[in-house]
Amino acid sequence: MQKKQNISLSDMKQALISQEFALYYQPKVSMITGELCGAEALIRWIKPDGTIVPPMDFIPIAEQSQFIQEITKYVFQKLVIDFAIINAVNSNISVSFNTSGKDFYDNTLTDIIIDAVNSRIIDPSKIEIEVTETILVDEVQAKGCLNKLANIGIPIAMDDFGTGHSGLVELSKWPFSILKIDQKFIKGLDDSTKDREILQASIRMAHQLNMDVVAEGIEDQETYRVLQEYGCKIGQGYWISKPLPLHEFIPFLKNFNNLPAMPIGLLYMAQLDHIQWRKTLIDTALFLHSSDEKRELKNLRGLPELEHTCCKLGKWYYNTGRVFQHMQSYSQLEQPHIKLHNIGKELLVAAQNHCEMGELTNLIQNLSEKSLKVLEALQALENDLHVEQYSEIEKVS
Ligand code: C2E
Ligand code: MG
Ligand code: MG
Fold this sequence. Notes:
Layout: H1 9-17, E1 21-30, E2 36-46, E3 52-53, H2 55-62, H3 67-89, E4 94-98, H4 108-118, E5 127-131, H5 139-151, E6 156-161, H6 168-173, E7 178-181, H7 183-187, H8 193-208, E8 212-215, H9 221-230, E9 234-235, E10 244-245, H10 246-255, H11 264-290, H12 312-318, H13 328-331, H14 334-352, H15 357-396
Parallel strand pairs: 2-4, 4-5, 5-6, 6-7, 7-8, 8-9
Antiparallel strand pairs: 1-2, 1-9, 1-10, 2-3
Helix pairs in contact: 3-4, 3-10, 9-11, 11-14, 11-15, 14-15
The structure holds ligand C2E and magnesium ion (2 copies).
């Protein structure tokens, strides 16, 4: 292992002037389609003698002073230039970069990024900002900056989720749209049941919060497969590729062969979403029916989504679920789902009007039957997916 060197602030200042900092890019893959979908820019300090200093040897020192702001500014400017080259090769790629808490103590970085977006130097949906929980220290200022950036369409990722001290409350208070689960949990997959459970619960939670999940530190195919089963959407790790300098990243992009796409985890999520919806709907109906007064639906807390295109299953069906649209079982799901929503609406109105108990139980029974049809259709889709997967494997072997 390389010995840590004593690094001073003035060494780093000199290195910045001499342009010794470089960006390496580590690819990210969509675990739904198997295609490359992004890359994380990671800083390296390349000394004139060719020695490469890893970020953990100097970023923590830079973070002790305002100098980290200079580094992040440099990273962003370099990334914008590199992005033009990357985008010309593959326009589906978005690039993320890392920031520190101090980058949001004032508006400098935020204004630079907003200027770049306003002057159309960069498309806001093509960059992502990764922040760690240290950001939560300077609450008001940092939150203002991140809200501004999120409002102009830049996705904000919470990096290293699960390692810091922030509670789950923080997650809902900040404008995060991506959750990057720390490597620690990915590495613990094989040996620790607890880590596995935490990982599954985190993926499920991110899904409930409409956040994308990125798993970092995928070092083998088995881990990639297990994460797909858990419903993780994006993967990053040495098994896909180590971070590469731009001149190696570009050929990597050009020659990339898609990885296995096995969106089985998404189907499990859809099944869970549906069961949750049905339970909430029946609970709501029983509450309305037993209530002394007639309650307005719009005033109810936690009312399940009544429109079939807007519930979680519907959003999945008409968006990510489209990866299944070549399968007959995909189209067979739509009608039972629409019917289910119609009965759901009917049930709530009847319960709201304090209908006869017999009518209420009939409607609940009817709803449950339609719900079974939806689950059967999802199951059929899952079976078709397994068959498709199996024939793919046979073709390869
Ligand atoms: P991070 O943002 O969590 O980045 C992921 C780190 O995990 C990277 O280390 C990456 O090389 C490493 N990694 C990715 N896949 C694997 C894997 O499969 N196995 C193993 N063992 N490691 C993997 P790296 O490049 O050394 O960066 C370390 C940390 O330094 C980053 O963690 C980030 O917190 C920080 N950092 C890197 N670049 C910057 C930067 O430009 N600005 C700031 N503020 N921090 C940076
Ligand atoms: Mg990161
Ligand atoms: Mg990380």
